[in-house]
């Protein structure tokens, strides 16, 4: 029989999770809760409308650490190797890792969360299947507001979110079958990034069979990248003023997005608001069989689009843009 427990501010959320067991519903009462939440059982629902989770005492020493981060980094909500997890309504603020970190989860629903000023990631989902991230607000992270990473056939749905003040608003990292629908991404260095790149010691990469549709991507003007470990997007190449980028993707459809008023404030390896390129030179692939249809790419500097791909291997139709490279590309009109 499943259990429902309400946790008041000042009570231990971790104790409630550990004692309630599989199938439990944990309700966080309105107010500020200090600590973190390691979800260790299947079928858990964690709901926290008007509840805020912040760093505090009582964090288990054996909690799984954020991938590729130092041992002292702490995330807010953590799940590893569980099934059928739902997290809704909660605000997670100020952790040194991710606001929410899910690794090897089967069946994940993240809805109506606010993740703000978590140092590394907002919502970070890795090697997970059956994931949805819906109607969340993610801001103030060094890397992505919402990221799905190495989910080879994760079939993730990222819909209706607002991402801002991150290096990447939404980051699809070596993940396939992802749908990114009707999100708003603004005030990042890059609004939406799809990247196929193989890393040493990581699972196989690839970004295939994704749908990017109906997103409003505008005003992305921060500068990210560089050698300073504390900088936005540290250790990556310099990026600024980019709306959507497809790097080494295959069979990705980009349909009916509005990409507008993106302007770089610093150096950038990408020179337009909509960018396509190959990642073959650093462990990925050429971009092939992508469909770019009915997008409005307007009011950006220095260019609206930059297509560093073999154009005959892609399909372009019905797109609106004023200026781009190459300027003779078909499927684009002023």
UniProtKB/TrEMBL annotation:
Recorded hits in InterPro entries, A to Z, give: Beta_helix, Carb-bd_sugar_hydrolysis-dom, PbH1, Pectin_lyas_fold, Pectin_lyase_fold/virulence, SCF-Subunits/Alg-Epimerases
- The residues covered by the Carbohydrate-binding/sugar hydrolysis domain are 55-191
Gene3D superfamilies membership: Single-stranded right-handed beta-helix, Pectin lyase-like
Alphabetically sorted, this entry's keywords are:
Repeat
Task: Output the SUPFAM superfamilies linked to this UniProt entry.
Answer: Pectin lyase-like
Supply the name of the protein.
Carbohydrate-binding/sugar hydrolysis domain-containing protein
Organism from which the protein derives:
Acrocarpospora pleiomorpha
Q: What is the lineage of its organism?
A: Bacteria, Bacillati, Actinomycetota, Actinomycetes, Streptosporangiales
């Amino acid at each position: 029989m499943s259990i429902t427990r309400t946790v008041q501010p000042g009570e231990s959320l971790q104790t409630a999770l550990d004692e309630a067991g599989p199938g439990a519903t944990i309700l966080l009462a309105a107010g500020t809760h200090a600590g973190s939440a390691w979800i260790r059982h299947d079928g858990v629902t964690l709901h926290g409308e008007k509840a805020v989770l912040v760093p505090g005492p009582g964090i288990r020493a054996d909690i799984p650490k954020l991938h590729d981060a130092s041992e002292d980094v702490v995330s807010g909500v953590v799940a590893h190797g569980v099934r059928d997890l739902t997290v809704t309504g909660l605000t997670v603020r100020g952790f040194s890792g991710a606001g929410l970190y899910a690794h090897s989860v089967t069946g994940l629903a993240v809805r109506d969360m606010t993740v703000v000023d978590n140092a590394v990631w907002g919502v970070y989902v890795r090697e997970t299947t059956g994931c949805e991230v819906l109607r969340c607000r993610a801001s103030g992270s060094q890397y992505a507001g919402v990221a799905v990473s190495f989910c080879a056939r994760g079939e993730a749905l990222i819909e209706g979110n607002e991402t801002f003040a991150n290096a990447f608003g939404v980051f699809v990292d070596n993940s396939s079958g992802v749908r990114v629908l009707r999100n708003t991404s603004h005030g990042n260095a890059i609004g939406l990034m799809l990247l196929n790149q193989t890393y040493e010691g990581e699972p196989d990469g690839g970004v295939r069979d994704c749908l990017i549709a109906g997103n409003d991507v505008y005003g992305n003007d921060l500068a990210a990248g560089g050698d300073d470990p504390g900088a936005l997007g540290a250790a990556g190449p310099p990026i600024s003023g980019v709306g959507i980028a497809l790097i080494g993707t295959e069979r990705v459809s980009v349909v009916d997005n509005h990409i507008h008023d993106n302007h770089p404030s610093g150096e950038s390896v990408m020179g337009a608001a909509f960018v396509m390129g190959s990642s073959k030179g650093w462990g990925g692939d050429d971009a092939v069989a992508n469909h770019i249809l009915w997008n409005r790419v307007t009011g950006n500097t220095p260019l609206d689009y930059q297509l560093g791909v073999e154009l005959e291997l892609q399909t372009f139709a019905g797109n609106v843009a004023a200026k781009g490279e190459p300027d003779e590309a078909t499927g684009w009109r002023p």
